[in-house]
């Protein structure tokens, strides 16, 4: 039995050829030939069954045979905005694992106590694409460039917005309890497509750097409509907190 | 302000000296001297405030000043039994992250489709200890040696037992829904110490190797009282499935 081969091809329906990296893999590793069946993922909700029509040493042309639109596995838009860790590999595994579990957008924040001010987002994007393929996700999470904390929180966003932090002096609710109760309400309305449109199920959650957000940043976020929350009693590293937040959001929003 | 220094000292109350590795760190890296305050974690529920009484080049003696028994952050015993992955570093990060989140026991299973038949558990135990210290956990998860799948499932265990797998032909319930509803019942009884004693809140969950359990293994587990479950619709790598299972159990049992 042949294994099903998935290739990531943005805008696959309007293309006729695999992107260069995917073509290299198809031709050199899998040794595909004309007539072979392949599956394309456009990262925006569709898989396509296609056939290789021509394969040279470097190029792989295809013809789409079937459009297979996929069902969403969770409601709303799950957006994690996190301060990158000093050791980049820690954020890299988090990006891989969060993609496997299922989320929509990854932003990087430049915070007051950030030790890292540069992020190679193309490298993170590659890791995300690889996890999308490996875990057969129909939607590819969007990876954003690093931006300033202030700019990020001042950008309007639909749905509920949360900032996770460890300050005792700022009142905190429990993140999972908050998003879970909200989700049950929208279950009751039985109209998930309407809430998908309105953004009512959307979750934006902020996770700070190794030294946490500054208390001024927390207060500024609260002033900008972010709810102050805790991820629980466990003391978590930045990247673990990011993954825990994504997983909680995924559980609360899964369909 | 001096940072609080935590040292892992099994049976700390009955010892008077830091174990050799901890002593090396205390003396060479932190350069502690007689009179310095340190904190000991015994990995079994207690922290101790102690004072360094004598420090030579290799040995560090202490005297306990205060016993600080810690409260448990979750109910019951959370036990993950997992088939080790081909690449050991994947299980290593899972052990670190699961410890940060909070669980009690990690077992390794030798399964029919296991690609790895050897696990260096002392190395995993070191990673777990380091995560216990870093995340200030009062209880150290126990790390067990690799054992055969059959032996493991035939050992009697209190509480509920689950096997996660991907077979369509074996009926599966949703793991999180199952453990969450059970937890709500025991919340209602308001008697968590009794359920802690009885093991009613205990969760044992099995995660298979890259190629999944064999269907015979799944059936054998079910015959031995394991409930057949799914972790959701996402296709997860072995180590991600292990972490997701631990995190779900932690959420369902947190106090």
Automatic annotation (TrEMBL), chains A, B:
Function: Specifically methylates the N3 position of the uracil ring of uridine 1498 (m3U1498) in 16S rRNA. Acts on the fully assembled 30S ribosomal subunit.
Catalyses which reaction(s): uridine(1498) in 16S rRNA + S-adenosyl-L-methionine = N(3)-methyluridine(1498) in 16S rRNA + S-adenosyl-L-homocysteine + H(+)
SUPFAM superfamilies in alphabetical order: alpha/beta knot, PUA domain-like
Protein name: Ribosomal RNA small subunit methyltransferase E
The organism's place on the tree of life at top rank: Bacteria
Keywords from the UniProt entry: Cytoplasm, Methyltransferase, rRNA processing, S-adenosyl-L-methionine, Transferase
Residue ranges annotated for the Ribosomal RNA small subunit methyltransferase E methyltransferase domain, each copy included: 76-248
UniProt EC number: 2.1.1.193
Biological process according to GO: methylation
Subcellular location: Cytoplasm
Chief location of this protein within or outside the cell: cytoplasm
Family named by the database record: Belongs to the RNA methyltransferase RsmE family.
Span of domain Ribosomal RNA small subunit methyltransferase E PUA-like: 21-61
Gene3D superfamilies: 3.40.1280.10, Hypothetical PUA domain-like, domain 1
Alphabetical list of InterPro entries matching this protein: Alpha/beta_knot_MTases (IPR029028), PUA-like_sf (IPR015947), RsmE (IPR006700), RsmE_MTase_dom (IPR046886), RsmE_PUA-like (IPR046887), tRNA_m1G_MTases_N (IPR029026)
GO MF annotation terms: methyltransferase activity
A Pfam family per the record: PUA_4
Residues spanning the membrane: none
